[in-house]
Give the backbone structure.
Amino acid sequence: MKGIIIIQLKGRYFMRRITFVLSVLVLGLVLTGCSGVTDGLNGTNGVDGEDGQTPYIGEDGYWWIDNVNTGVYAGLIDDNGPLTGEFSFALNSDGLSYYLVSYTGDDRYIDIPATYLGLPVTSIGPNAFNGNQKIEYVIIPENVIVIERYAFSDATKLENVTFPDSLKRIEDFAFYKASSLKTVSFLSNLEHIGASAFIYSKSIESLELPDGLVTIGSAAFCGLEKLTSLTIPDSVEVIEEYVFYGASALTSLHLPDGLTSIGDYAFTQASSLTSLVIPNSVTTVGISAFAGLASLESLVISDNISVIPYGAFSGLSSLSTLVIPGGVYSMDDYAFSNMTNVSSITIPDSMFSIGSYVFQNTTKLESIVIPFSVQVMGHHVFTSNVNLIVYVENPIEPLDWLPGWDYSVDEVVWGYVE
């Protein structure tokens, strides 16, 4: 015997033809009608099955009761099914389109209308779903060009968002602390991702950035601790500060040839990354931009970087060989400190200034050559390197080498000729 079960989940209806082989208990719960499975309106009937009695949809797409899979597939969303709440819209200043102001309801699955009163909905307004603790899946319709500030901020159960091809801009903090998002994939027309747009959306495992993307704002993806692979598209020329700070699971990173600048702390604590190539198009790297890359074994630095800033490559504790490219003339304090596994460092003839503590705690390093070109040397450059012999090409100490530059080294050899 076969029949049709209709289940309402906060106003959305799911239909599935099944064979009546389930237990009486399961059928009794499922067939009690819409009121029997309303997924906890205002918490009165249990939220998302947490009361142990209310049916809910598991991650596998089947109906569950407590921790028991009923074997009934939830089916597909019926777009004609009503929602439990209402959308509020307001007219844009052009008088020809609307933006979504808010949604009041308890639905987990939301398909935002593409039009209102015959006019297109072109943006998701500020705070439209801010703090919504119900939604899990949102379809953003074609016509939407902008997702405004804080639109989905603190939507902590939001797992999936379908972005339209029309989308061009995601503004600051739009998905701030959307901590259940797992996969983010944008279509080709997206041009701008604002500052902190996805900050602390810590469950994101997959991120696809489209060709044509121009701007990634500061801290846009900060704290994505589960992201494993990342390709920056060729259209991006600047990576702002803190953009991928704390991407501790990242094992694969591709930086494009057109990239020119990498901001402060951009990839700090990407501690699982094993290989890094900074293309020759890059001319500036920020403070601590690649600090804390503890698993990095291979590093190629752009030939066109002239200054290595404060702590830029500090804490690369798995790197064994460091070749500083010929274009570098200055290294700021702590630039390559705490490289505890490095045994070979090559300093180019272009080098003019070496800051304080630059090679602090490079404890496996036994020898290094300082070129004649180096005229400025900071304090305690080689602190903790007690077995190090420093070979200096200059026969006498230059005037701007600070006292104590050679603190803790084993020996200094002047007038070295290779």
DSSP finds one helix and 35 strands in the chain. The longest strand covers residues 2-9.
